[in-house]
């Protein structure tokens, strides 16, 4: 985290119209900064941004050429291709919002960096930006200062993180969010096959999340695997015999817990 800097109005072109772009646009719209244009290759998705700016385009050739910051909130595999088509100016900053993509894909731009919000975004779920870590990086001190100004206009929770750290952070986030959510989906599927409601597990899930606020996850681990309760684990495996994918995952995770 870092110290506060003065915020000066920046002209921003937002590239993308997905969930991250949607929430960033609405957050930045309520700051001293000016979103002068929004681009997305699908014109249909741009309709959600009419309250932000009327300057919407699905043609990269029509991108506003004199913005201070070009913020790329597109899919990871599109970042390098889109960045290569943006105007190159000595003073403009090009930054992307990806956790997994290195900043080097933007290196053709003299000033480039990272503006990575560490959160899972759903389009129509309200975002509390004060709880979201914003991870920044820049190839020059001037770049980092401008990105810091943007970040602090929506959120004081800022971290300076380099490419290697950010990519490791993204891997950890996949384990913490994507994989756990998938396990919730598996648990729900197992329950539904027995006409049981997933609501039965929600207090347990909530308590698990509460525990890790105060205690390291490793010390909070419970269950048959950490106890070495082989008899119970075998019973579970027998119950999953008609669900071989779940059975294999159960064995893998149980072994990981036991070896940790």
Description:
The protein is α/β, with parallel strands linked by helices. The chain has 2 domains: 11-161, NAD(P)-binding Rossmann-like Domain (Rossmann fold), CATH 3.40.50; 167-259, Orthogonal Bundle (N-(1-d-carboxylethyl)-l-norvaline Dehydrogenase, domain 2), CATH 1.10.1040.20. 41% of the residues lie in helices and 14% in strands. It has 9 helices and 8 strands. The protein has helices spanning 19-29, 76-84, 141-152, 163-192, 202-211, 217-220, 224-227, 230-239, 244-259; strands spanning 11-15, 34-39, 56-57, 69-72, 93-96, 111-117, 134-138, 158-160. The chain has an 8-stranded mixed β-sheet with strand order 3-2-1-4-5-6-7-8, sandwiched between helices. α2 (76-84) links the parallel β4 (69-72) and β5. α8 runs antiparallel to α9. The two termini are 31 Å apart.
Summarize the structure.
The chain has 260 residues and is α/β, with parallel strands linked by helices.
Question: Top keywords for this entry?
Answer:
elongated; 260 residues; 2 domains; eight-stranded mixed β-sheet; Rossmann fold; N-(1-d-carboxylethyl)-l-norvaline Dehydrogenase, domain 2
């Amino acid at each position: 985290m870092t110290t506060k800097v003065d915020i000066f109005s920046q002209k921003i072109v937002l590239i993308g119209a997905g969930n991250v772009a949607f929430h960033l646009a609405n957050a930045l719209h309520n700051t001293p900064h000016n979103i002068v244009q929004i681009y997305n290759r699908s014109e249909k998705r741009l309709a959600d941004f009419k309250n932000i700016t009327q300057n919407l385009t699905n043609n990269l050739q029509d991108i506003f050429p004199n913005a201070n910051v070009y913020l790329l909130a597109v899919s990871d595999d599109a970042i390098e291709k889109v960045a290569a088509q943006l105007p190159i100016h000595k003073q403009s900053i090009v930054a992307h919002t990806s956790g997994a993509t290195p900043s080097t894909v933007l290196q053709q731009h003299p000033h480039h960096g990272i503006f990575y919000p560490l959160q899972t975004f759903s389009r129509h779920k309200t975002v509390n930006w004060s709880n979201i870590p914003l991870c920044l990086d820049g190839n020059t001190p001037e770049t980092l200062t401008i990105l810091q100004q943007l970040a602090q206009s929506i959120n004081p929770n800022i971290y300076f993180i380099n490419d290697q750290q950010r990519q490791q952070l993204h891997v950890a986030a996949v384990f913490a969010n994507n994989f756990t959510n998938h396990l919730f989906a598996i648990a729900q599927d197992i329950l539904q096959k027995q006409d049981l409601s997933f609501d039965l597990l929600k207090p347990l899930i909530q308590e698990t999340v509460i525990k890790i606020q105060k205690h390291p996850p490793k010390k909070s681990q419970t269950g048959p695997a950490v106890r070495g309760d082989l008899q119970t684990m075998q019973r579970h495996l027998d119950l999953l015999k008609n669900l071989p994918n779940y059975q294999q995952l159960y064995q893998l995770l149980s072994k990981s817990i036991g070896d940790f």
